[in-house]
Design a protein that fits this description.
Blueprint: E1 12-19, E2 23-30, E3 36-42, H1 47-64
Antiparallel strand pairs: 1-2, 2-3
Bound molecules: zinc ion.
Length: 74
Amino acid sequence: MALACPKCLGETEVSCTNSSPAFVERWRKCKECNYSFQTVEFIKVDMALLEYANDIVEAYKGYFYKEPKQKGKG
Ligand SMILES: [Zn+2]
């Protein structure tokens, strides 16, 4: 089931998608009233898990951490 238009609850379709490794942005357009809006899709993070992961990274930082190679953005 596609997202309903926030204005009229009409049916919407994706008009453009912009994806990156971290998130996906979509431009949707209402078929009824032509209203355009954006949606964002990203990984849902459990805060407890994130805290745990940070602790692990922190604990083993000096052990195996290497400076990541610089990459161009985009
Ligand atoms: Zn609409």
